[in-house]
Structure formats: structure tokens, C-alpha cells
Amino acid sequence: MGLTGIQIFKLLPKTNCGECGVPTCLAFAMNLAAGKAELDSCPYVSDEAREQLAEAAAPPIRQVVIGAGVRALKIGGETVMFRHEKTFYNPTGIAVLVNSDISSDELDTKLKEWNALQYERVGLNLRPELIALKDTGGNGAFVSCAEKIAKESEFNLILISDDPARLKSAVDVVGFKRPLLYAATKDNVEDMGNLAKETDLPLAVKGDGLEGVMELTEKLTAMGLKDLVIDSGSRELKQVFQDQVIIRRAPLVAKEKRLGFPTITFPCEMASNLDVETLISAMLIAKYAGIVVLSDFSGENLFPLLVERLNIFTDPQRPMTVTQGIYEIGTPDENSPVLVTTNFSLTYFIVSGEIEASRVPSWLLIMDTEGLSVMTAWAAGKFTGDAVGMFVKKSGIADKISHRKVIIPGYAAAISGDMEEELPDWEIIIGPRDASLIPKFLKEMVK
Questions:
Q1: How sure is the predictor about 221, in pLDDT bands with cuts at 50, 70 and 90?
Q2: Which of 107, 147, 182, 426 could cross-link with 404 by S-S, CB 3.0 to 4.6 Å?
Q3: CATH of 5-57, one of 2.40.30.10, 1.10.15.40, 1.10.760.10, 1.25.40.10
Q4: pLDDT average, residue stretch 165-192
Q5: 159, 179 in Cβ contact below 8 A?
């Protein structure tokens, strides 16, 4: 934030009512300054103070929302150049380009294929978010395709046309999807700006280099528009890379507000095949692109980009976790073994993978240890015998099994005594220290 905790405190009502979730206004101000609270949590802040704080709290790079409802995509809103400085907030949107002259049957087929491209990883659903529909002219095809995509898929829309009138016709039909309008240029900036202002939709800006972009964003912001997305206009790899770095650096370091917006890039126009597009997209996801547009989606090209994006946009200060609970590995029954471990995602995937490899159907209990591994959680007092015992007791696993045996990680053998006190009717079995030994251990156990 641009203001310190004390500066924010001076603008708060100082009622110390506690309705924001912390006991004092000073504590709330400190949380605001640290980005750990939202201003809306205070019900008594004045409109004048809210306006000042909102301006001060605004990130140097504008956050832009494309789409509506639970599938809305947020891009921009970033505050640092490098992830280790704090974190990156809004993952790069991944889009596919569709020409409006596509046949209805082919579009049906594509939508079914693309809708199916969803992957479960670390308890998260990974999927692409956008279809960029390009106006190729002729007989209302642009509007009809936009309507079909909006009504028959969960994808958000980018509407691409040089003709503001055609964009307006499409918006009249699919405006409920809150599409991104592409793009304002030096030739149509006023018409595009008026359309975006009239419809309250985000607008992309395509310039001839960064100087051209800044002229356009200056004109549009003077018209009252704030939700802008930048396309520097370059389609040459080296120049695009340089542009992305400059656009990110300018508002953060040089305080250049004219470049303080997320970007859209077009790998589909920079390569002759999808594999090269994927390589370019991987670079652009790592180097600040708000949206990358591909010519097609296929599993082998999309999945690596989704995983890369997940890794880059995971907060380095917060471990990736899975949800606490009971996980079925295979098809366990009342006689199947029960294992318990922590909710650090890497621990979960290693342990569950080894259990699957054993081909012994099992129950895996995942305990919330705030994303810490077994040894770290034990050392931090979050995976102690009494805590694990209480978790097993409350988990509900006893209703699913006929035995009373639970396997704990070998590295946490020291907690077995306290677990026995907490679970006097249970047998505490110490498992292997190394997860790679789980298959052998389970096979021998069920003989």
C-alpha cells in the first residue's frame, strides 16, 4: 500500500468496535498496510476516507476483471517485480483464438473438447479461461459465434474487431459475460473508448510500440476509463519479451501510470505451430503476461502451461496444501489399512502415489498442519501425539472400518506414546521412514 499503518489509522473512525475482526482500529490499520485485510471489513469508515484509502491502496498495476460470476478472471493487480519479494496475485489467463467464420459444427466440436480440458492437481481445478473470438466479417457470424460461446460454454470472452459497431452488436448479446473488447488503436480510440465507457467493459489497447500505448492509455484514462489491457503491438519474440519487462517495471519502479495495466500477448501470431506457441507462452507466463492467446488447445500443450502457472502464482510464503479429511486410495473397505500424514501437498502426493503403487486399497487421513511436512510439523508442535490422536478420533474413520489400527509416519515414531493415551482402544503402528518403502510395508501387512 502507499500509506503506512499510522497514516491509515488517522483516516479510520477509531471506534475500536472490533467488527472488522480485530480488536482495535490500529491493528486493523496495520493489517491494511500489510495487505492482510480489506477496507470493506470496516463498516464505519467515511466515504471521504474510503476514497483516499482506496486510491492509496490501489496496486501500481490495475486489476482488471474479465467475465462475471464464479468464473470471472482477474488479471493485473501486481505489486512486485519478483515473486520472492512478496507474491504474484492474479494468474495469467490462457486463451484460444477462434475465427468467426468457423462452422457451427466445428465450433460445437471445439467447445466440447476444450470444456473437457480440466485437470485436478493439489486439490485445485486447473483449466483455461478464455476464448478470443476474432471478427472475420460476413453475415452476422461474429455475433452468432459470440452468443454460442457465451451460452454453451463456461469460457470468458475476448471480442476482437476493428469495427466498434460490430463489437457493439456482439456486446448487446453477450454483455452479461463481461467480455474484453479488443482493441483501441490510434485510428479508433475515441469510438472504442466511448463504447467501453457506455457498456462499462474492459478495453484492450493496441499501440505501435510503448510510446503509442502510452498515448492511447492517456487519452482513454482522460475519458474516465480505468479497466485497460495493454498490447504493445509487437509480434517479434525478443521485442515482446522486452516490452513485457518494461511494462511491468515502469509502474512499479518509475511510477509511470500510463503503463500501469495488465497485458495481452499473442503467441498464436508469433509461431507457425502449437508447440512453438507453447514455448513462447511458457516464457510469457513467467514474464508478466496478463493473457496469452494460443491458436488451439490440446492436453499435451495446455497441461504444462497450467502447471507452470500454478507454480509461479503460488504464494512462496504459504505452502501448498490439501484439504484435511479422509481420502480413499483405491476402493478401501472396512478391513483396509489406515494411514495418517500431514496436509503439505508434496507429502500428500508422494504418500498417496506410493499407496497406489502398492495396489493395497487404503484410507489416508490428512491432518491440517498448516502446510508443514511431517518432520517440520512435529518439530513445530503441530503433529503431536495428542493432536493426531484427537484428529483420528474426530475424523470419522472409525465409522468406516472394523479394526482399530492406524499407521503413522516413521519419522514421527516419537508421538506413538501420546497417541496411545489419546486412543487407548487403537493399535498405533509405526510405518516406514521413507515413503518409497510404503508399498512393501503395506503388502507385508495385509498378507
A1: very high
A2: 426
A3: 1.10.15.40
A4: 96
A5: yes
